[in-house]
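Work Package 3 (structural annotation) set out to generate three-dimensional models for the target panel prioritized at the project kickoff. During this period the team completed the workflow that converts sequence records into discrete structure tokens, so that structures can be stored uniformly alongside our sequence database. As a representative example, we reproduce one entry of 401 residues exactly as it appears in the project archive.
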Amino acid sequence: MKRRVVVTGIGILSSIGNTVAEFSQNLKAGICGKEKEEHSIVGGYEFPPIFPLKKFDPRAYKTHLLDPFIQYAVAAAEQAVTDARFDLSAADPYSISLSVSSSKGGVHSLDRFKGRLLKNPSAILGARMYTSAVPNFADQWIARRLKIQGPAKCYVAACATGTVAIIQGFRMVSEGQAEYCLAGATDASMTPLMLGGYQNMKALASRDLRPFDKRRDGFLIGEGAGVVFLETLESAKARGARIYGEISEAAYGQDSKQPIHFDFEEHALSSTLKLLMEKTGLTAKEIDYINLHGTGTKHGDLYETLELKEALGQDAYKIPMSSTKGATGHVLGATGAVEIIATLLGIKEGFIPPTVGLEEKEPACDLDYTPGKARSATIGNAIKVSMGFGGQVAAVLLRKI
């Protein structure tokens, strides 16, 4: 029998806050974490503005020699445990699992070590590069720091990675593979190679990230991590833990046409939403909020809008929705985890997160995207949808307890 799984702890690092309280306050206020300058200089090259972390000190976690993607993961995981008020030393270390992922791993380390390795081929240097670059080493470092010995998973699904990681953590606890789980994702992709790649793909905006706005012209890169602490509802009640929300069910989909754009005829997103609703028995009228992928690209935002109408019919117009990327930037592999956290805070604190940057709605994108500032609301059922290059689609249902 599947067990009910709830979120009792949150760890967050983002351009709008490095604590739950700061993140929530700035999210509600519609704060944008983008740099003020018209251009950012990364590695000596000029790029459109970025959404960097502010005032993060990895020395506080003794991870300053590691790749930033590992630094962020460790910090967010420790935050989540503290926020859950969970005593790791009193728990069986084999009962605690990990599902913390990254879509690319340590691209900073690859950039930093490549020249040194070419000049001086070395097994030691190669090992250092490897252990700082592979996505699953975030799990390994968290386990080492927190003395966790339960099962660990690392699923990679491009920009849906964070959502998939939390879904898989939910599955482990629900199915009894573990009693507890730290689940989420991390991303640190602000290197010339990654930014140059996105720019040459014409995916980056020139200056502003404007989801669903008629002037939108692409996304801008953010960095950070989001990790949640998962346990059974029974465990949370027994501990008297604060509950942010329940993870109820999830569904996956796939678009096989081509690696970057989703095809309007394959209906990968609407099929995934319909599957999730079928599995849960949820009707469109019972959905109180949807956190969208909403990257600010011309094609992506239109595709998402049309697919929501395909899945939900006329009820799509009555459901408050938003993309939080205008606040945090597109955090790539970690973006789904950050946005699940935004949704959970909306459920717990009673607000619809806003779509920052949306000022002039695209006529074809005509749903309720909550522009500008948060809106007070009671959220009983919320859906988070994520999509990623390679045709990855994931949707998860979050519920108020």
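Residues 350 and 378 are 5 Å apart (CA to CA).
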